[in-house]
């Protein structure tokens, strides 16, 4: 699988991801997942494909400072940002560079495994879910979210249209990958085959907001795997690209602020 289909951002883009996308997109989803997991103090938590670690960092507040909280990702740049943010926030979290298909953790060593907007990027989804099941205790829960299809998600739909036109198919494919696991039947079968029970899959719509729509679309474009290609465009072309992206939001943009639906399947399953 090509690197950009696994959401591999270059150095610098991890910092922009944390600064620009995490507050608008990933904190609201992390809250949603953590509420469903009903963590209690002392539980051991893994944030798989943690990126800059927002789920682990927020989970740490719920399980307390003495609990084991770990974040794992294959991208060293993402982990560097995760490490510095957790240090800044005074949280003790282990950050581990690892592939979800081969996690360096003992059997039955976690009470909860989270994977926020990660499963769609794994080339071998079943192996990853089997790994999540292996490292969970009996009764442990796996809580994940994956974006639904493009027609539900104007943020990605508009981005694909614009990237195809201005940068090329490869750049657009990196965004297509975000919405590539949208069939709840396929997701259910993967969890069942990995050995999970009590599998529930719910379509959840969050309204995501930013008070400065233009600034947000600029930052959104610069926080994705297409960031380098966009920054190499002539300034005037870049401004046109951003205006046309903003226009794709239609009535979700009021001339200043953006408020748009972001729709994912949220899965809760047990061992
Ligand atoms: C869209 S980001 C989501 C990050 C994070 N969960 C969040 O909520 O901000 C997808 C992440 O999956 C990671 N990833 C992709 N394939 C992976 C793999 N095989 N093993 C571990 N991490 C992987 C990427 O490096 C990236 O950090």
What is the percent of helical residues?
Answer: 40-55%
Strand arrangement in the largest pleated sheet: 3-2-1-4-5-7-6
Report on the biggest sheet: 7 strands, mixed
Number-wise, the strands total: 7
Q: Do you know the CATH topology of one domain?
A: Rossmann fold
Distance between the termini: 29 Å
CATH superfamily of one domain: Vaccinia Virus protein VP39
Q: What's the CATH class of one domain, please?
A: Alpha Beta
* Each distinct ligand: S-adenosylmethionine
Query: What's the rounded overall pLDDT mean?
Result: 93
Give the radius of gyration. Answer: 18 Å
What order do the helices and strands come in, and which of them pair?
Layout: H1 13-37, E1 45-48, H2 54-63, E2 69-73, H3 76-88, E3 94-97, E4 110-116, H4 125-135, E5 136-147, H5 154-166, H6 169-176, H7 184-193, E6 197-210, H8 213-221, H9 227-231, H10 235-247, E7 258-270
Helix pairs in contact: 1-2, 5-6, 5-10, 8-10
The chain binds S-adenosylmethionine.
Describe the model.
- The protein is an alpha/beta fold.
- Helices cover 43% and strands 22% of the residues.
- It has a domain of 188 residues: 3-Layer(aba) Sandwich (Rossmann fold), CATH 3.40.50.150.
- It has 10 helices and 7 strands.
- Helix 2 links the parallel strand 1 and strand 2.
- The chain is globular, with a radius of gyration of 18 Å.
- The model has no long low-confidence stretch (mean pLDDT 93).
- It binds S-adenosylmethionine (SAM).
- S-adenosylmethionine binds next to helix 2.
In a nutshell, what does this entry contain?
This protein has a domain of 188 residues: Rossmann fold. The protein has ten helices and seven strands. The protein has a seven-stranded mixed sheet.
């Amino acid at each position: 699988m090509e690197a950009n289909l696994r959401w591999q951002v270059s150095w610098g883009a991890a910092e922009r991801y944390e600064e620009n996308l995490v507050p608008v997109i990933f904190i609201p989803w992390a809250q949603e997942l953590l509420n469903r997991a009903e963590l209690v103090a002392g539980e051991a938590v893994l944030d798989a494909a943690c990126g800059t670690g927002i789920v682990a960092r927020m989970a740490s507040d719920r399980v307390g400072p003495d609990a084991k909280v770990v974040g794992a990702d294959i991208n060293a740049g993402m982990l560097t940002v995760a490490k510095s943010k957790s240090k800044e926030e005074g949280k003790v979290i282990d950050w581990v560079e690892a592939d979800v298909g081969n996690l360096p953790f003992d059997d039955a060593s976690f009470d909860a495994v989270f994977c926020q907007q990660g499963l769609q990027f794994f080339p071998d989804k079943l192996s990853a879910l089997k790994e999540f099941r292996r490292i969970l205790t009996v009764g442990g829960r796996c809580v994940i979210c994956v974006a639904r299809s493009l027609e539900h998600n104007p943020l990605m739909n508009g981005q694909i249209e614009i990237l195809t036109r201005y940068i090329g198919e490869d750049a657009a494919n990196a965004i297509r990958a975000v919405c590539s696991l949208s069939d709840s039947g396929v997701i259910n079968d993967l969890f069942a085959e990995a050995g999970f029970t009590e599998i529930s899959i719910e379509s959840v719509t969050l309204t995501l907001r930013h008070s400065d729509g233009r600034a947000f679309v600029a930052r959104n474009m610069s926080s994705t795997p297409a960031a380098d290609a966009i920054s190499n465009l002539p300034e005037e072309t870049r401004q046109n690209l951003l205006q046309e992206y903003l226009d794709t939001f239609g009535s979700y943009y009021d001339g200043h602020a953006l408020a748009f639906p972001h729709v994912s399947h949220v899965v809760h399953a047990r061992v």
